[in-house]
Amino acid sequence: MEKQSSILRAISVDGSAFIHAVDATALVATAREIHNTSKTMTAVLGRALIACSLMSVQLKGEKNTLTLQIQGDGPAGTILCVGDSKGNVKGYAQNPDVELPPNDLGKLNVGGAIGNGTLHVIKDLGMNEPYHGMCALVTGEIGEDITEYYATSEQIPSACALGVRVNRDLSVKSAGGFLLQLLPNADPDIVTKLEENLENIGSVSQKIADGMTPLQLVEQVFADIPFDILDGNEVKFSCGCSREKYSRILATLNQKDLKSLIEEDKPVETVCTFCNTKYVFGIDELKQYVKE
Ligand SMILES: [Zn+2]
């Protein structure tokens, strides 16, 4: 059986900071299979999906969703991910097969693929108007951009680290990350200690590639800081689309278009952009939506 991806939650005993840490190797491997991403784009989409899962499990309501949209001017095009509080996350990249040479550090060039632009976060909390926050991209490496987003748009001091490693055969070797956030009135001594710990932690994807678990990641970030482990959460790539969902879109087509499709004897084919599932609707089915 395929290994599950899971998120671990922990909070410092004094209530200064909390953290979500995830081993998302299985999640990113599924995304790679669905979208057949290049090496660089596996890292781009993978990091965005990890970030989206870390952000969306913080949602309170069962039906709440969080959309993370990264709009850069680089060759990757737009990256869109959607997650919910239960750990379901889906996403796609506009140009999944873009490949770039490694960056100056010899790493997959995520920042180069994304380029300059903006990061948008849309939270649908079941109210009339969804919440919409945004910030300018800092490096396009996604982790720093998420940190910037929380600082400027939500005024929450945070640190986000994300990592994806890809094998020579393009399969996902490891993927994971963490999102650390300060709570109001955080103890300045704890903050200083956290900053020291973060400096010492190094490459998260390297650590996960070396077999480090979310618990060990939490232990490193919270080194010398007492903390409690809260509940965990499974995370998985899950689209939630269905034939019924798409047939409802058909029902909204205007009658003229519908009739001309029937006259041309053209079955309607739709492909879900998130999971690449193809749905075909035959002429007989189209005829059901014609109102006489
Ligand atoms: Zn789908």
- Report the order of strands and helices: EEHHEEEHEEHEEHHHEHHEEH
| CATH H level, superfamily name of the largest domain | Hsp33 domain
Fraction of residues in helix: 25-40%
Q: What name is given to the CATH topology of the largest domain?
A: Hsp33 domain
Task: For the record, give the distance between the C-alpha atoms at the N and C termini, rounded to a whole number.
Answer: 52 Å
Q: Helix- and strand-based class?
A: alpha+beta
What ligand molecules are bound, each kind once?
Answer: zinc ion
Outline type: globular
Mean pLDDT: 93
CATH C-level name of the largest domain = Alpha Beta
Give the number of DSSP strands: 12
Q: Count of DSSP helices?
A: 10
Task: Note the beta-strand portion.
Answer: 25-35%
- What Rg, in angstroms, do the CA atoms define? 21 Å
- CATH architecture assignment of the largest domain: 3-Layer(bab) Sandwich
Low-confidence segments, ≥5 residues, pLDDT <50? none
How many structural domains in the coordinates? Answer: 2
Description:
The protein is α+β, with helices and mostly antiparallel strands and 292 residues long. The chain has two domains: 5-237, 3-Layer(bab) Sandwich (Hsp33 domain), CATH 3.55.30; 243-287, Alpha-Beta Complex (CBS domain Like), CATH 3.90.1280. The chain is 33% helix and 30% strand. The chain contains ten helices and twelve strands. It has helices at residues 25-35, 39-56, 110-114, 143-153, 188-201, 204-209, 214-221, 243-251, 255-263, 283-287, and strands at residues 5-12, 17-23, 65-72, 79-84, 88-93, 117-124, 131-136, 158-166, 172-182, 227-237, 268-271, 278-281. The strands form two sheets. It has a ten-stranded mixed β-sheet, sandwiched between helices. Strands 11-12 form a two-stranded antiparallel sheet. A hairpin with a 6-residue loop joins β3 (65-72) and β4. α1 (25-35) crosses α2 (39-56). The longest helix is centred in the first third of the chain and has 18 residues, at 39-56. The protein is globular and about 75 Å long. Bound molecules: zinc ion. Zinc ion (ZN) binds next to loops.
